[in-house]
Amino acid sequence: YFQYKGYAGGFWAAEGYLASARCLKGLGREKDRLNTYRAMLFDKYINSLPQADVARNELGAQMVQEINEMIAQGVHTNVTVKLSAEVGQ
Prior knowledge:
Elements: H1 11-26, H2 30-42, H3 52-59, H4 61-72
């Protein structure tokens, strides 16, 4: 879902998060499913979209409040890597 953030205002990325959560539920991987919802709410490109309400409902008010507080404190969960390269002649 990371590569789809730039398309359709993040719609497809949000749908990717939800599809991942559904698959994880089917596999019985509850912790991973909840972590996917958490990641969705930490994702600034996704957390204001209507699909994020699914994550909020699944996580519950207490967890959503904790996530919102962490975001307000500047916590980032997605790893960003900067690369540089030199091109040889």
